[in-house]
Structures are given as structure tokens and as C-alpha cells.
Amino acid sequence: MRDIQLFLRMFQKEMDWEISNENYKESKLSILNNYMLLTTEVSEVAEEFRSIFNKTIKLVKEEGYSENEAFNAAKEMHKDNIGKEISDCIAYLVKFANYFDIDIEESFYSKMEEVRTRVNKDQ
């Protein structure tokens, strides 16, 4: 993960896609703009899921696939697009982490340990 953070730090600098650190107003606008772009990418992941479900139904109705066969075929058809959209999401999340000097790998494992030790309120 640290390699990805370093790569994206350099890539975003090269592309002039960094979050502004000029002053409060510029930083605020830049953070909000990037947040908006992140949510757009998340919705594109959802659109891919919807396409998978629609394709599944179509394969069942028009091609005679079983639901499981159709779903597996549809997932395979959309796998590359989902990967691209998830990568876009990761890029924005890493951009925020880099802006706030957060080590994602450290933060991730710390959070997962917190989740592991948390009392499950559903039981």
C-alpha cells in the first residue's frame, strides 16, 4: 500500500492533481471538489453492479442460462470495468490520505484490529 501511496503522490504531482494547500479557502474547495469526484466514482461502481444484474436477467431470459451461470458470466463481462472504477475510487481515497499525511497501511491494520476486538452489537 505504501508503494501505491508513493506512486500516486508522484503521479498526482506530475498531473497537477494535488489537493490545494494554498490557504484555507482553496484547500476547502479542493477537498470538496475531490470528494465530489470520489462520490461520482463510487456511483460508477454501483452502475457496473446494476449492469451485472441487468445482464444476468437478460442472459436468463434470452439465452436460457441458469441464474448462477448468467450471474457468473455477467460478472466476468464487467470485471475489467469494475476494476477500473474501483481503481478510480482508490486513487481519490489515497489522494486524501496523502493530503492528510496518513499512512493507509498502518491506519488500515489498526482499524481492522479495532473492528476485531469490538463487541458485536448484533449478537
Name its key features.
mainly alpha; about 120 residues; about 80% helix
> What integer value in Å does the Rg equal?
19 Å
What is the terminal-to-terminal distance? 33 Å
> Helix tally?
4
- What percent strand? under 5%
Q: List the helices and strands in order.
A: HHHH
Poorly predicted runs are none
How many distinct beta strands? Answer: 0
Instruction: Report the helical percentage.
Output: over 70%
- For this entry, what is the oligomeric state of its chains? single chain
Mean pLDDT: 96
Overall geometric form: extended
State the domain count. 1
Structural class: mainly alpha
Major sheet attributes: none
Q: What does this protein structure show overall?
A:
- With 123 residues, the chain is mostly helical.
- The protein has one domain (2-101).
- Helix content is 81%, strand content 0%.
- The chain is built from four helices and no strands.
- The protein has helices at 2-14, 24-63, 67-99, 104-117.
- The longest helix has 40 residues, at 24-63.
- The protein is extended and about 60 Å long.
- The model has no long low-confidence stretch (mean pLDDT 96).
Compact description:
Keywords: Hydrolase. By secondary structure, the protein is mainly alpha-helical. Helices cover 81% and strands 0% of the residues.
Write the layout of secondary structure elements.
Blueprint: H1 2-14, H2 24-63, H3 67-99, H4 104-117
